[in-house]
Amino acid sequence: MSPSRGLRPPRIVSAVLSRLQSRPQCRHHAVHAPRPLPTTTRNTNRAPGPADAPPITQLRLSPRRLHVYRSSSADPFFNLSVEDYLLRHSPADSTILFTYTNEPCVVIGRNQNPWAEINMPLLRHMQQTPETYVHFVRRRSGGGTVYHDLGNLCWSVVMPGKAFDRDKYAHVVVCALQSLGVRDAAVNERHDIVLRPDVSTDGKKVSGSAYKIIRERAYHHATLLLSSNLENVSKLLASPLRPFLETAGVASVRSSVTNIGVNKEQLIDAIEAEFLRTHEDSAGEVSRVTLDQEETLQVRTYIKEGMEELKSVKWLYSQTPRFTLTLPDKQPLPELHGQPSLTPALPEHARFILFAERGQIMNATVSTSPDPDFAFVQSHESHVRLLRTPFEGASIAATLAQVNSLDAAAAQPVTRWLEAAVGEWAGGEWNPNAIKDGQPTMRKRALRRLLRKDHYASKLSADKKKLELELQWRQGQLARRKRTTRKGADGKPLVRLVTPSLVRHVGATEFPRFRTRPVAARKYPGSPPDKPKSVKGKTAVKTKAATRDKPGASNES
């Protein structure tokens, strides 16, 4: 019957009810109720959160899995740092479209050699005035060297690692271009976007792609030439040192380029519309965000530290893979920008070889004498003085001037040419281990977490190996016990073959049951004797125990 009819509830029920009533209320009782999602429309301008909160702070808290980001800044260091932040701090199942425009800059891949890709004398000349200033940037992804300016549109898609595809979002951009009337846009076999009027031709390149993949996330970013200064592209990407360098880094593939000639804002809208059309079946709403540089840097230290790293000398030059510079003899060196008359040539039998790694000279062979013995002395002295010298024009020239054994008349013109061709290093200092405001940098803390994970992983691996060795030893002991086990008269072993500790290590499936020492039945006076067993028609000999326990029997053998 129901207690509502005046009957007392059962004793157990009343005890449970009284216990529940006396229990203190849970502080987090609200988590049991369904959490209401923020009421946003498909065309919202900000992610859910306080109205005055910067939009970048709501990325990880947003219940939506589609995000459309725009950057109002033209700083290439800021935009690339935001891209890295979106890659490493966005939810693992989210997909983000990020569009931005950079100031004039030359961007090389992470594994490229700047002296093999960039015309350094021209770059330093353009950096002397603010009107023609061009940044030098090394991005965090691979790929070749590209030129950015305000007539260039950069787009990036951050996605889950399992959904990574080199052509998927390139086709999205092609569909957006075709919707604006660019009918001959296509994706070639190198995953780049080209304008191909005829199928039989390779076409002219309008977009170059690069990629980065980490554990659970990846991004595909690329450029679009809308109205760029193509003259700067051809001049800045023609290095005078390229014929003399052998590098272990990635070399850029030279292609003919052209401008598309469409409106930038219309193209951004078309790309966003095509991006949303591609993900129309995805659950959740879309977040539209416009990032402001000053506001973002105030709340995201990771992006600020990323900018400091990208601007540092250590990142720009010391990340260069190993390479070898070899200048030929009896051959005039190419003309440099601003110094048309400086085309020296090494004398016959002269040698000029520099091997550098991580931006430092690790081996050098410089000699001008035709005599082999004296050339060896020159090479040895130049190697000792140039060892660990930064691969910088002024440093190399100053060090070679101290080599007394070299012929000054033959070496000085080549040294001046090399100083102008290599150029000076320009950048700031960056130390990821530095303590700022009493706290280590975010990258230092991230490194500590990685080291801690590696320590736990190595410790777990060592424990696992130790357990495997112990298991092998126990299995060997088990095999030896099986061979040397004493057996009783009934043929059963008299020792325990399997121990509980061994079962815990190996698993109960290996040993379905325990076989332990059999306990002999006690014989009391008057108990019936054991029945003799018949073995092949003969009566088995009685055991000593049975004879000893028989009343009136003798114990003599």
From TrEMBL:
Organism of origin: Drechslerella dactyloides
One GO MF term: lipoyltransferase activity
Biased composition (Low complexity): 38-48
PROSITE patterns reported in the protein's UniProt record: BPL_LPL_CATALYTIC (PS51733)
Region (Disordered): 23-57, 514-557
Coiled coil segments of this chain: none
Pfam family of the protein (one): LplA-B_cat
Name the record gives this protein: Putative lipoate-protein ligase A
Pathway: Protein modification; protein lipoylation via exogenous pathway; protein N(6)-(lipoyl)lysine from lipoate: step 2/2
